[in-house]
Amino acid sequence: MDYFTQRPGETAREYAQRYLLYQIINLNFEPGQKISDMEISKELNISRTPVREAILSLTNGQLIESYPQRGIFVSLINSEIVEQVCTMRRMIEGPLAEMSCGLISQSNLDNLYDTITLQKDYASGGPRENFEKFLSLDIAFHKEFYDICSMSFIYDTMQNVMPHFDRQRKLSYHIAISDRVISEHLAICKALENRDAKEAGKAMVEHISTALVDQNILKKKFPDYFL
């Protein structure tokens, strides 16, 4: 897989950080799990120094915790950080949905509806691989609004905090959110089609807010994963 092969021009530290992020976001390294810089360096066939540098970077991002004499651990999913990321997304994507009503082209609208159609193919009840494809399409749906409004810098900046949100989103495979997400996406698109900026913004904010409802369910189902 691409995530386990060093890319041309990629430094060893960048490679190690990309690998660690992939494993953490996809819950291959579970919240609270102890990890070893030595084992990771052997896995990637690089020295321990760039692995330690990557671990330090992710420690600063609150995805990894390091304790003297105890070791290195994947951070638990911090509920407060997830809530803050949701707040950021509501503050940004709500207005973006409103702005999109005055900027959206038929091609943009077609892209959004096409994404929803594909999501239906991977909706609830299928294997884990289907859910992964569903989530990729969910990301594409939301990115379309940043593209419509020419806000790529803000989108790229948001990716620095999204891993906290993404871990919860990956875990939501266990509570069958797909049909609800499709319904919410359709409501957003309907408002866009009607050029109803207020309703588009409202639908987007409500859609993002459901992640907090999901969080309460997931905390009961996976109490050892959350802080």
From TrEMBL:
Domain HTH gntR-type, which positions?
10-77
Q: Which keywords accompany this UniProt record? A: DNA-binding, Transcription, Transcription regulation
Q: Which Gene3D superfamilies match?
A: GntR ligand-binding domain-like, Winged helix-like DNA-binding domain superfamily/Winged helix DNA-binding domain
MF term (GO), any: DNA binding
Under SMART domains, the record lists: FCD (SM00895), HTH_GNTR (SM00345)
Cross-referenced InterPro entries, in alphabetical order? GntR_C, TF_FadR/GntR_C, Tscrpt_reg_HTH_GntR, WH-like_DNA-bd_sf, WH_DNA-bd_sf
Transmembrane region(s): none
Question: Can you name this protein?
Answer: HTH gntR-type domain-containing protein
Species for this entry = [Clostridium] citroniae WAL-19142
